């Protein structure tokens, strides 16, 4: 015989159900409030069009031999990291997790090596020198292995080994040059007080990264079709005052009705600037082809993220000086005019902003380098995330809309969590 519940039992069940529904609603509201408190936007409310591409982006994994972050890596660097100058523990964890997210592309936004020397034969610098020595023709093995040229190649080789698994499991890796790849710390500064880039450093970049820019055959095997309308920076004198071969340093292509542009923000003779004229022409041609969305990747941010609630942080990006700020403004005009999203690093931190209220700048420079915020817990604008190793994974929809998800883990290598979520209209 069927069982019948007593009226009191039914009322109790209904009350319990209502309580659970209320709790669930409050839980969702609490999650929204947590997101908003952390500077995280609420997720989509309406159903988007299908996802046509997923890519990830991060930067700045190089270690520092002197001012490494003791709170995260310990009182001394491991023998491995002291030799190869990489935060191996942080970046390998990031890369492993990116691998599980299965993006089709990874854009690495510079400072993958410490570099910062002069990759010319016979030159050797130390990280604390005020001027560079040489040239001295090496006559011993120690002089060869201790040279800046050898250190550049060693560090590139170690980094390439770390990202190789992604290339073997479906993710094409695009490198972006940073100031540590192109500039010389021990060389005299330029008239603006900025460190100078060296042509030999650009050549070392091309020798170690050039096969990735663009390997059409490998790209096609990983993504199923070839990139289209590839465009490379000028080989010799060109717009923006560029005088050295930029064909492996600034480049662009179309894929799946989207346009991707990589720029060198520290070219020889035009350090701390973006190639605004080259980029403007490149993006104008892309828009004429009818691309749905434009993404630009560089190393230095256009606008410095002032993470400190104490002494203001200024001039960390393309706004370093009055002269570079004028060039920055021209660059951001191009970004705004094309409704592009600009991903960058250099500041070892995570931040998303709309500097002029329109186009987005996304700083994902916390790939392992010493955190810019030196004190755990502050004083900072976003203490919950300003000392988190982090990266962004971006889902692009057929209509050109974008879901940008930022993941990270804290300085103590705690659990990985979603620390940022943005739904960006076409």
Descriptive account of the structure:
By secondary structure, the protein is α/β, with parallel strands linked by helices. The chain has eleven helices and 15 strands. The protein has helices at residues 7-37, 70-73, 79-84, 88-101, 141-145, 148-168, 179-182, 199-209, 216-223, 276-288, 322-337; strands spanning 51-58, 105-108, 172-175, 183-184, 196-197, 228-232, 251-255, 258-262, 293-297, 341-344, 350-353, 360-364, 388-397, 402-410, 417-424. It starts with 6 loop residues before the first helix and ends with a strand.
Q: How many domains would you count in the coordinates?
A: 2
Backbone structural class: alpha/beta
Uncertain stretches: 1-39
Order of helices and strands: HEHHHEHHEHEEHHEEEHEHEEEEEE
- CATH class of the largest domain, named Alpha Beta
The tally of helices reads 11
Name given to the CATH architecture of the largest domain:
4-Layer Sandwich
Q: What is the CATH superfamily label of the largest domain? A: Metallo-dependent phosphatases
- Order of strands across the main sheet: 6-7-8-9-10-12-11
CATH topology of the largest domain: Purple Acid Phosphatase, chain A, domain 2
> Radius of gyration, rounded?
24 Å
Count the strands?
15
If you average the pLDDT, what whole number results? Answer: 88
Strand composition percent: 15-25%
> Helix fraction?
25-40%
